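Z., the sequence and structure:
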Amino acid sequence: MSLADELERLAALRERGVLSDDEFARLKVQLIEQGAVRPLDPNRSDLAVNRLRRSRSDRWLGGVCGGLAEQTSLESWVWRLAFAGLFLFWGAGLLFYILLWIFVPDESSPAQP
C-alpha cells in the first residue's frame, strides 16, 4: 500500500470511531516518519500474555490469581472470587485454574524468546 492509501485507511478508522484523535495523530506521525505502521507481531515479548507469570508472593495454591492481579488492575481476591463463581458452572473455574496453573510459567522462570 502507498502512503496515501495508509493515511486514508487511518482517516476512515478515525471516522468510524475505532481510533481516537490522539491515536490517529500518533499513527499518522509514525506512518510519515517510518513509511509504514508496524503490524502487531505476536512474537513480541512485551505483550501482556507473554508477561503473565504465576506469582510467588501472592499465592494460595498455584499463584495464578496473584499473577493475573499483577497484570491487570484487579486485586487477587477478585480473581479468586471469579474462579470460585465459575466453579459453580459445571467446574469451569477449576478447569480454567488448573489449565493456567499448568501452562503459565512461574515468576522465577526465564522469559521465553
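The mean pLDDT is 76. The chain has two domains: 3-34, 48-103.

Let me know what you think.
H.
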